Description:
Elements: E1 2-9, H1 13-23, E2 27-28, H2 37-57, H3 67-72, H4 81-109, H5 117-125, E3 128-136, H6 144-147, E4 150-155, E5 159-167, H7 186-210, H8 214-235, E6 238-240, E7 245-252, H9 257-267, E8 270-275, H10 290-293, H11 296-302, H12 313-328, H13 331-346, H14 358-375, E9 377-378, E10 381-382, H15 391-394, E11 401-404, E12 408-411, H16 412-440, H17 446-466, H18 472-492, H19 500-524, H20 527-549, H21 557-595
Antiparallel strand pairs: 1-7, 1-8, 2-7, 3-5, 4-5, 6-7, 9-10, 11-12
Amino acid sequence: MTKYSFVLLSGEKEGFLEKIQELGVVDITRSVKPVDDHSHEMLAEASRARKVLEFLESLNYKDDADWEKISASTVSIDSDPVTYVEDTIRKMDSLKADLTAVRKQITAREPWGDYDKNALDSLSDLGYTVRYYCVDAKRFDSSWEELYPLQKVTEDGKKLWFVTIAPANEEYSFPLNETVAPDGTYAQAIAEKGRIENEIILCKAGLLNAKDYIPAIRETYTSIMTGMDRYLADSAAEGVAENHVAVFTGFAPSENDNALTDEFDKMGVLYLKSEAIEEDNPPIKLKNNWFTRQFEVFTSMYGMPVYSEFDPTPVVAPFYLLFFAMCLGDAGYGIALLLFGLMLNKGWVKISMFEGLGSIISLLGAGTIVVGTVLGTFFGMSMYDATWVPEWLKSIMIVGDVEIPGLGNFNIQMLLAVGIGIFHICLAMIIKAICFTKRFGFKNSLATWGWTLLIVGGVILAALGMCKLLPAEVIRWGVIAVGVLSALGIYIFNTPGRNPLMNIGAGLWDTYNMATGLLGDILSYIRLFALGLAGGMLGQAFNNLAGMVRGDSVVSLIPFVIILIFGHVLNLLMSSLGAFVHPMRLTFVEYFKNVGYEGRGAAYNPLTKDKQ
Length: 612
């Protein structure tokens, strides 16, 4: 990155920032949140427009029962389309609540039918009271019709609705409690329901017509965002000389130096140029190849590296792919993911939450096909035991148990997961030692090198000893050398120039943390085996369930196919979720902790007119 410092009169700020936006490659230091009421209002307006855009883009009433009426209705939009959509959504929510209420009224009024409510109300003026009752048909006593002025209204075989009329000034008693009197007729409730449904249809038609305003709303959103971006950059300017001169700081990729300096010279602006250093805290723009670039999203989720820090993505990419494939662990599921990713890239399938992820899904699917084949699982079936799998393919599969002398038999896939974990952590420690040496110097990294030598050297010597590649005497002297050199770095020279007793104390504390944390870190990698095993067993269980309902008849194919499709789709979704989350945890917790990655940098965000 190249650092630019611009000095200009305050009155020139607006034109300068507009030209910087047109260049689109300079990251001007700006506030990361609204700095005053004006920018807060701009952000609120942009948020409104964005929400309306997302709503309209996903709007589709073609499956609505009233689609013909909705599409045939024409509603004019005279106000601001964003405000209209917001108001219409609120109106529809209110209408839906009213519709629910009127449906309850219909259910309550239907037994009473249609009647002249004014005529009934006039009875009270004549000194009579009408009372309403509802009773189970079995509980109705026919003698009541002789004892009381009673009129049946409706009977459905289960319940009976009736009314009684009695003088208001006479004592009255009845062996049943009154029910709530209807506040209107059944016909009125039906009419109200029709009115509300028509209002909802008009609202839906209006929202459908509002989709024509999507380009205008998007243009408004872009205009607000670019204006706010420029406003915040303006607010970040350092005022000097009693606010008559403004000083801006910006950063741009070094490969743009020549083109930018030519543009700045044409603008006639006074600027200073220098190579960015760590103290400037410049923004970070990652540079990776096509494969590695697909995994930059995981680096950005944790945090961008600071300027002198290394980019972890080249290591994260292959290991995340391997971890995901082991957690999913099924070649059949890998094929499904690969096809899904390709369909996303081709535009044959459009799902907003997976937008732009087709390439990485395809990569994860391809990796799962390879790893799933090596692990010997295909849609819950054991490929190693299948007769249709060629012998040459079975020869590369890692299945079964392996015996460790003196310890017993262990599942080879579990040992593979632990072995990958040990290698991953050892690689992290080596990278940490190299990067710390580059950043802080070898003298200030002796403790890091001590731990790296102890752990990595110990693992290498242990592997050589177990494989009997070196004589026992050589291994013994190697362990002694590694132990002595590591102890010097960890306990004596961990902080050069400090009291040796304090260094020893700090070394002992580091030893406690390392001993308690390292074993847990390594055991965390067993999840690579456990998740793959769980998914395979669940897939096998669905296969067995489908086999149990499979008979000789053609009809039995229906439940057989339903169980297979439902079971494996459900298992794929659950296993993919676990395969996404747990490798991320291994990366963010186990790897980043041992590699010393901080991730406190800011992403490169140039001032531009293209803000989506």
